[in-house]
From TrEMBL:
Organism of this sequence: Clavelina lepadiformis (Light-bulb sea squirt)
Region annotation (Disordered) ranges: 89-125
Subcellular location as annotated: Cytoplasm, Cytoskeleton
Name assigned to this protein: Uncharacterized protein
The organism's place on the tree of life at top rank: Eukaryota
Family to which this protein belongs: Belongs to the BRK1 family.
Residue ranges, compositional bias (Polar residues): 108-117
InterPro entries cross-referenced by the UniProt entry: BRICK1
């Protein structure tokens, strides 16, 4: 009779261990599921960020090319403008070997006005 009583005493203890094991497994499964969701989110976030950064990089490169073009055009316009100012201020180019100034008329100037220098005053503002 003692043998059966000791077995019946061990059953509740064994049942508690099984219940605890199931609870632990459910908890572990919940953690694993949460980790999968986090991992999936991070992978999607990484992919989205890489795509957006690539698009942003393309736009930035395009803007850099446009800026380089505008800088080159402004340099050219500045060179042309300074040469025109020099010409109108009387700093006309010299003929090679003669030391004489260029007697060509500038656009919009007549033959009589050819030797007069034109002063360009900066705008006040």
């Amino acid at each position: 009779m003692e043998v059966t009583n000791s077995m019946s005493l061990g059953e509740p203890h064994r049942h508690d261990k099984i219940q605890d094991d199931w609870n632990n497994r459910e908890y572990i499964e919940l953690i694993v599921g949460s980790m999968r969701k986090i991992s999936s989110f991070l992978n999607e976030f990484d992919s989205s960020c890489r795509y957006r950064l690539a698009r942003l990089n393309e736009k930035l490169e395009s803007l850099e090319r446009k800026l380089e073009y505008i800088e080159a055009r402004l340099k050219l316009l500045f060179i042309i403008w300074t040469k025109k100012l020099d010409y109108y201020h009387g700093n006309r180019p010299q003929h090679q070997g003669t030391g004489k100034t260029d007697k060509r008329t500038s656009p919009g100037r007549g033959q009589n006005e050819q030797n007069e220098s034109v002063r360009v005053m900066p705008r006040s503002g």
